[in-house]
Amino acid sequence: MKKINGNVTTPKGFQASGVMAGIRKKNRKDIALVYSEADCVAGATFTTNRVKAAPVNWDISILRNGLSKHAVVLNSGIANACMGEQGVKDNFAFAEAVAKELNLKPEQVFTASTGVIGQPMPMQVILPGIQEAAKALSDTNEGGKNASEAIMTTDTVSKTVACELTIGETKVMIGGMSKGSGMIHPNMATMLSVVTTDINIDEALLQEAVSAAVKDTFNMISVDRDTSTNDTFIVLANGLAGNEKIVTKDKAYEEFAAALFAVCEDLAKKMAHDGEGATKLLTCEIYNAKSKEDARVLAKSVISSNLVKAAFFGSDANWGRVLCALGYSGVDFDPTKVDITIAQEKDKLDIVKNGMAIDYSEEVATMMLSKDNVSFVVDMHDGAFDATAWGCDLTYDYVKINGDYRS
Amino acid sequence: MKKINGNVTTPKGFQASGVMAGIRKKNRKDIALVYSEADCVAGATFTTNRVKAAPVNWDISILRNGLSKHAVVLNSGIANACMGEQGVKDNFAFAEAVAKELNLKPEQVFTASTGVIGQPMPMQVILPGIQEAAKALSDTNEGGKNASEAIMTTDTVSKTVACELTIGETKVMIGGMSKGSGMIHPNMATMLSVVTTDINIDEALLQEAVSAAVKDTFNMISVDRDTSTNDTFIVLANGLAGNEKIVTKDKAYEEFAAALFAVCEDLAKKMAHDGEGATKLLTCEIYNAKSKEDARVLAKSVISSNLVKAAFFGSDANWGRVLCALGYSGVDFDPTKVDITIAQEKDKLDIVKNGMAIDYSEEVATMMLSKDNVSFVVDMHDGAFDATAWGCDLTYDYVKINGDYRS
Asked: Is the pLDDT of residue B146 over 70?
């Protein structure tokens, strides 16, 4: 498996577009369309928030309806959440308009929305926008790039990824895009993400690979602990690569699952790094915890702590806050066994041994923490399970962005 | 029961002091002492963090040792957490020095520390400081005020409270002080709090009243979801009021418990309002939830949300974020039954009915949210249980304070 330049149009048979429909005030792309002419199987995961936006409920309802899937339509600017019956109707019209353009049934079209909660979808600009998006569909890199730009909200960069792997003799591609900036927290981020692949795979196995990948990637990032009403992750697989269909958990499945994991991890890290107001990517690697779940909870507790995040912003090696965040995670452990190391590329600086500070250079620690991408590596000496979580620093700009998001 | 001006020296027989020992860089008071010559029974609660500072472990070990209690010594500047054996020794010396000055056993002296984690207690200044604090003990209002000032860290104001109630024919006093600013989250805040009372009460009943009060006061505030290693709440009761000893859960007990609750609520709100960088007090009142615990979890989820807090800073009536925070709290409920009202003193503005926005004036909402003290009042229409939680806005200053706390 190797990473390549690309996006959702990289796998065979996928087209995409992103257009300015006029949902957003500024001149920004706001409708994205991803399309496969060939029949697709789909895997997906959605927000666990009790309050779910209309498109999320729609997607859940069509995911296992027995029809082949062909498209995902996404908009930014309006979340279509907390809109009652109107929201359900508008969302259906959203899917229906795409279906009409592409000769599909509405139930073959996934929808996703992100933006302000509690305002109606401006259908008078969305419906013409869909016509335009359908016309603009393209299998070029540009098509996928436009789509990835159309789903940005407070994101500062569009996020795409692609990789290629070989299943038997057959070259298989996976491409993806995501948005997500604030309101990002495990289970899941305010993220919309679409991944396309030309692999030929049984739908139940695809879902299994999707669920497994999400657990240790999208669900291990946090910007602000808020979990949105709209989180949606959809994978479409159209089989055009022509590999022998994957129907059991054989070597081919494992290779695909690993590649899908790498794609999700790449997008997850990009989202954490581009957290609202973030200047730096913060990683916490937990080793030797009592269970996998303990390791996950500990890692997430560290990267979610406002105090750790603010200290990271100030490049302050305030390891007491790291130990403190481990301590209130709810996981039972012996603090006097914990070691903490700051890691930054090849450099490693031990700062805590057996739960106490050792003699380290504050100057070196500060220098390492001032870099773009730093890990707190924590050895619990308590078991055999590891996990990694990703977050970002807490900055003035986070407050600024979220103090006047709607205006 | 009525609130009066006062603090820990208001109840009969209590003395206090606060002195500059030189633990902190600046010329600030940093050792506080609270003392009762008469024997006291004690009730207390402590941090649930797995990482506990040395003074917390000490207090837990002496709480039920059968000896009468007489004093609480507190310092700011150094947390004495994550210091291993050295921390245990230093803390014992801390208690021992107070015991020597006041003719007590060390096991009759509670200790509490707040400040930087992982640095040693500077005993060379602390021990002389204790001598000074013992000399300065005073039963005046000034003595209690000095003590409340000596435990401040990033607090911008000292926090004290007092109330008087009548048990039978007897006048009883309760006085308190607390510190806590950042790292404040349920179970419990980074708070140190000492409450004194001259009531005559059985120790087990005192503990019961303390535990009950904490649950819906100190444990219902959050500044940043971080739970510290040092949280300590100690109540000393010396019986000098002369009321008939409370030995059952009779009317007198209920009256005392209600007064203690009011004292804790007052201190809790003061701490939330003085959260690091906070400019405003945010209250969330939940009504008609399915259970008491559901109501608590929902209320805390709203006041803990960084997105709600940032919107509150910007006086933005972003009710979608309130509904969203309810939704990811983990509580099961029907979003289409939820009503939300903004309340500010006598004014009430309905903004959400049945989970959807109603036609309200953004201008009025913004004006109300720009005030110092605002509530989101949420009716779940789902049961008969209520709860209230307190927090604050998320501001540039929170980031500033915590980006360079140690420097």
From this structure: yes
